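Input structure tokens:
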């Protein structure tokens, strides 16, 4: 498995096959080895999966900094899966210069008793309510309803006004292809994401 994780061609082949991805997920050692592929390997593998020239991207930082690459990645399920599965890829995405902050609530209480919907397309990196009482929950990403347990979909850190690392907490619910549905109280509710 170490040889596979060292080759961007092999990594792309694994993530390009749903059967291979499931086999790797079923083996803890294989999963950990693949998730630990270097930034250079992941950057080139993701470029291949997204239909781009791997020679144009030295590593994950180059992919994460390219609007062209991110636009191609969001259109490839295999590339999206590879990105959120790799710790080096997630680290590069969170440091991307493309990330922007977006407010979700224009007046206090606006989306507390009834859900709000935000049309968007991109990768959610961080979320915050901007207050200490945890008043921000994402209930749906695109057409997928998140777990009904509030702790499983809570988009704010209790007792903190800072950002929650959504990408680490919910990697499989970070890509948004059309919209998010949420409950939020305060105007300080924001997300930081990479628009694609």
């Amino acid at each position: 498995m170490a040889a596979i994780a060292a080759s961007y061609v092999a990594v792309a082949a694994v993530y390009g096959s749903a059967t291979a991805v499931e086999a790797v997920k079923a083996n803890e050692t294989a999963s950990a080895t693949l998730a630990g592929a270097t930034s250079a390997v992941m950057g080139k593998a993701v470029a291949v999966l997204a239909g781009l020239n791997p020679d144009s991207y030295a590593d994950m930082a180059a992919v994460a900094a390219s609007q062209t690459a991110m636009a191609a990645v969001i259109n490839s399920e295999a590339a999206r899966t590879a990105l959120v599965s790799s710790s080096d890829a997630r680290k590069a995405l969170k440091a991307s210069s493309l990330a922007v902050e977006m407010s979700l609530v224009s007046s206090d209480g606006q989306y507390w008793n009834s859900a709000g919907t935000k049309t968007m397309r991109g990768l959610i990196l961080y979320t915050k309510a901007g207050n200490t009482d945890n008043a921000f929950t994402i209930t749906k990403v695109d057409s997928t309803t998140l777990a009904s347990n509030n702790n499983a979909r809570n988009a704010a850190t209790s007792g903190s006004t800072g950002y929650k690392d959504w990408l680490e907490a919910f990697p499989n619910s970070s890509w948004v292809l059309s919209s998010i549905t949420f409950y939020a109280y305060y105007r300080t509710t924001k997300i930081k994401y990479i628009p694609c």
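DSSP finds eleven helices and nine strands in the chain. The CA atoms of residues 133 and 159 lie 6 Å apart.
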